Amino acid sequence: MNKNVERLYNGIIKENPTFVLMLGMCPTLAVTSSAMNGLGMGLSTTVVLVLSNMLISAFRKVIPDGVRMPAFIVIVASLVTMVQFIMQAYTPSLSDSLGVYIPLIVVNCIILGRAESYASKNPIVPSVFDGIGMGLGFTFGLTCIGLLRELLGAGQIFGFQVLSLSWFTPITIFVMAPGAFLVLACLVAVMNIVRAKMEAKGKPLAKPSGCLTGDCAGCGHAAICGGKTQTETKTE
What is the helix (H) or strand (E) element at residue 41, kind and residue range? Predict the structure, then answer.
């Protein structure tokens, strides 16, 4: 499989941030009361993820190791501010719905995790595709959760009434906080069933993801995942 296509596949299916790696749970549970909110949050994160991966990959050889994380946060914060201003200008209602969770993209573990584990160690093009794959996987997860919560909690999909209130009684718990946990648990269970069936067929869908930061020097499982310490990498 082409390396760039593999990055897309990993992000959307094999290492889906929401259903496999279980990352970014704060916005996943908080903003998915509707499909539109989930889609908006996912696409906003995707834009930041792609651009941050591209910039961090481009400057990876000039950013000193000692200030990697502060430099990454400055880059991500600048991009998030731009995205927030654009949303406030062109999609004010969506910006108001997402509220504080747009600025909180700065500290989203998906963004910083991919920056540290992939973009800072790979060329620009694969890093961009990695960002696209992870971003689309995150968007897919949030949109699926939002669709189910909105459908069961209001009988709507993207704001359009699809279940007649003459015979359907909305289950309001699904648009409340507990509904997010219930829907997420059901979707993760479905993903686990699919993974188990694929493994039984000899075609595992996902391998253990190992550490997210790429810092094998501080990990006790480097011998298992085949990781190398930073010293070994520099020596090579």
Answer: helix 35-58
